[in-house]
Design goal:
Shape: elongated
Largest sheet: 5 strands, antiparallel
Structural class: alpha+beta
Strand content: 35-45%
Radius of gyration: 34 Å
Distance between the termini: 130 Å
Order of helices and strands: HEEEEEEEEHHHHEEHEEEEEEEEEEEEEE
Number of strands: 24
Helix content: 10-25%
Strand order of the largest sheet: 3-2-5-10-12
Length: about 375
């Protein structure tokens, strides 16, 4: 054997262990890398987040919503604003799972979906802080006609806000809005989604402290009660309440400062004596505006009373902002009670105008009597 072939054989003998060692090392790296990458891919770089919702305090039964809502919406907003909001609509009322990128999130839930509300307008839903609902215009011909002068000259906060709103004044029928239907929500802020921690602890879900949402109604029921002397002369009434909240911020869970007016229907009359009695009704609203101060002119009850002659109408614009109080009734939150009786003059009864009637719709050819207060 030549010297050259001996050296080649010696070199090859030493090289075999080195190649084997390097090959084993590379395989270990590949195997480790594959294990980590497989776990990452399994979550698709998104972390599952459990959302649990409790509707027991949402008062759906008080608003004739049946046994329970039929669906809900979940909105999640990245606090930095760098990620798109995550939205899920589901028929599952108790639990849903969102998949979110790591970060810090604000989340709110509410019943149903945006498209299912006919009496509410949603706006600002692309941002957590600006998401809100508001009432939409409703035609009330008698009020827009009979109270146009009052709105023009009144210094009530609602009238001044109405005059300043060119969009409202452009439509003579948008002085009132629809009463909002039931809406319930809850929110959590600062929910931390940490994907590295999830992978490290090998748990498939993110749970945050007190992670259950307890929805509460954004809508309240308000009662209105008006007393009369000369109750036997009362035939029927129509009314509007002005100055209640028009909008509600979902993340603040509070009514805002913009005001509206709602037409009141469904009046019930009760005679106390031969000459005294009262009428009452309830309505649905976002409640009192933010920073409400209980001054008389913050709320007005605009009341028309038709007497039993079928012609005479007593017209009242009553400042009742200081007469709002908590109600003792289970499903009514606040009540406005005009305790000082309104005096109704004696008139001759007609055959049609015999006793209180809430079904009267023909108020034409009447005699209007304005009452200055």
């Amino acid at each position: 054997m030549t010297m050259q072939s001996k050296n080649r054989s010696l070199f090859q003998g030493h090289a075999r262990p080195c190649v084997s060692t390097w090959l084993m090392f590379i395989l270990m790296l590949v195997a480790t890398s594959c294990d980590r990458r497989q776990l990452w891919d399994e979550w698709d770089e998104l972390v599952p987040v459990d959302i649990n919702v409790n509707w027991s305090k949402s008062r759906f039964a008080d608003f004739d919503e049946g046994d329970a809502p039929t669906g809900m919406s979940v909105y999640a907003f990245d606090q930095t604003g760098s990620q798109q909001p995550a939205v899920m609509v589901t028929n599952d009322l108790e639990h849903v799972q969102l998949k979110l990128y790591d970060g810090e999130w604000n989340i709110f839930v509410f019943n149903q979906s945006v498209m299912e509300y006919a009496s509410l307008k949603f706006s600002g839903m692309d941002k957590y802080a600006s998401a809100q609902i508001e009432t939409i215009p409703q035609t009330s011909r008698w009020f827009s006609t009979s109270r146009a002068e009052w709105v023009t000259r009144s210094h009530s906060p609602w009238a001044e806000q109405t005059r300043a709103n060119a969009e409202t004044r452009a439509d003579e029928y948008s002085l009132t809005t629809k009463q909002p239907i039931w809406f319930a929500s809850d929110c959590h802020e600062g929910v931390i989604i940490d994907e590295d921690k999830i992978i490290r602890e090998f748990t498939p879900h993110t749970r945050f402290d007190d992670g259950t949402f307890y929805t509460k109604s954004a809508i309240i029921k308000m009662g209105v009660k008006v007393h009369f002397n000369g109750y036997e002369n009362l035939y029927t009434v129509r009314a509007v309440i002005s100055g209640v909240a028009k909008s509600y911020n979902i993340s603040q869970m509070h009514a805002l400062t913009e005001m509206t007016a709602h037409e009141l229907t469904g009046w019930k009359g009760t005679a106390v004596t031969d000459s005294t009695g009262y009428v009452e009704t309830t309505f649905q609203t976002f409640g009192l505006v933010k920073e409400y101060s209980y001054k008389p002119d913050e709320l007005y009850l605009h009341l028309d009373v038709m007497l039993v002659d079928g012609e005479t109408i007593m017209t009242y614009d009553l400042p009742v902002g200081n007469q709002v109080r908590a109600s003792n009734e289970n499903d009514i939150d606040l009540i406005i009670e005009v305790k000082d009786p309104l005096d109704l003059p004696k008139v001759n009864k007609t055959e049609e105008g015999n006793g209180f009637d809430i079904t009267v719709s023909d108020w034409e050819d009447e005699i209007n009597i304005d009452i200055d207060l």
